[in-house]
Every structure is written in C-alpha cells, then in structure tokens.
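Next comes one such specimen:
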Amino acid sequence: MNFFKIINSLFKFTEIKHQANIFNYLKKIKLDSIIDIAAHKGDFSRKFINDENIKNFFLFEPQLKFYKYLLNKFKNNKKIKIYNVAINTVNNKIKKIALNIDPSTSSLAKIDKNSLLYKIKNIILNSKDNYYSSQRVKTLRLDYFFKKKN
C-alpha cells in the first residue's frame, strides 16, 4: 500500500468514527426527522432507516450522479424524499459545483489552485488536479424549503 492510500484510509477511518459518534448521540434524543445535506450515497441516513420514531427523511444531494444513485437506492421507501439541490445561503440560484476525485470533497466554493488545502488534497489523492469537472446545480435555503413545505 502506498503512502497516499494509507493517508486516505486514515481520513476515511476518522470520518467513520466521527459519524458513529454523531449517530450514537442522535439515537439518544429521539428524532422524528432526518435532514441529510450532501447525502452522497445515503450512508448516514441509512443508519436510521429502521428507527420507528423517524417519520421523514430529507436528503439533499447536489451531484447528479449521487442523486440518481439515491433515487434508485431508496425508491421503495416512502419516508425518504430526495432533492437534487445544493443547500446554500442563496435561494434558487444556479451555481457550479466543482467535482472532485474524492466526491465527498466536491465544492460550490471557487477553487483556489494556490491554496494550501488544494495542494494537500492533490498530495493525498496523488493527483495533479483533483477537480476533474463541474456541473450546474440549483441552490436552496433550508428555511425557504421548510416554510414552503408547511
């Protein structure tokens, strides 16, 4: 295993540990809804699927590839609603999302190729340019979404 794979595995391990801590905390407070922003493959929400207290799941995924994946994955679950939007402070605007080799780090932010973070990501992902493409996505403010729902 090369150095980059070891570093990436370490990051994934800490992410899994962090999610487990969040999951354990949330189980204690008896939620009736889950809001999953940047739901990716739905792993976080899936942990709560069998919780009878939770009546609604709202999954927001800006990347079209993962939005379609989620639609297929949860197509038979009526409690789960999936939206292809990016949660933002600005409502109903079309923005460009920079798609990263590591999809969990894709971003709406302007990419600064001179930033330290950009350079570190390239090292970790063993890449010269970890952003390979972009796509357009509509933005949504959560407060607007829930006002409109009620």
